[in-house]
Specification:
Layout (H helix, E strand, L loop, with lengths): L4 E2 L2 H5 L26 E2 L12 E7 L4 H14 L6 E7 L4 H15 L3 H13 L8 H10 L4 H8 L2 H16 L4 E2 L1 E4 L3 E3 L1 H4 L5 H15 L4
Parallel strand pairs: 3-4
Antiparallel strand pairs: 1-5, 2-7, 3-6, 6-7
Helix pairs in contact: 2-4, 3-4, 3-7
Length: 220
Amino acid sequence: MSTLCSMTRRAFAGGLVDATAGLLASGAGAQGLQEGKNFFRLKSPQPVETGKKIEVIEFFSYGCPHCADLDPELQAWQKTLAADVAFRRVPVMFQDRWIGLAKVFFTLEALGVDERLTPEVFVAIHKSGMPLWNEKTFFDWAASRGLDRKKVEEMYTSFAIAGKVNRAKQLAQAYNVQSVPMVVVDGRFTTASDKVGSHAAMPAALNELVAKARAERPKS
């Protein structure tokens, strides 16, 4: 079973994207992660936006069922992060509906409720079948979760959110994101659940890549 949502022609046509990539690799095993199999080193490392902290980015979409499956693992992993590590999410937009979902994420983030409500967004879309990419549906849903509907609408339609959406598109292009969920560590290493064996294996894999990034950083 695929553990990635890939960019396909069908994805651009609309509807929740179907996964097309197969399970490409087994787990890393006792010898640790293997470069070129379990993770890949970017030929052109990207600058991080977290200063001296090691940046971990999850490229994802609320519309991706595999991102929904990975989310509980990442939610738990975030609680264990070292002080020199910063985690953030960047939504990708492989199809028109995912643009609306990117705006949903950035709106919740701007209101400071993304961590609390992200699991509920995944449930609403993938288990309840709610089209949260529709503005009215999202506004109604947000109000049902105790948010001020007017504030949500104002934020969702603001220039600030439009700017964040454009920046997310630029980042996805810079990192050549072809499928999600994809995780980048410190602007130099990429990995995904199918590369390390399963969603459950991702936390340990990320910890190993964070340690590797830390060791490779110039000593101050």
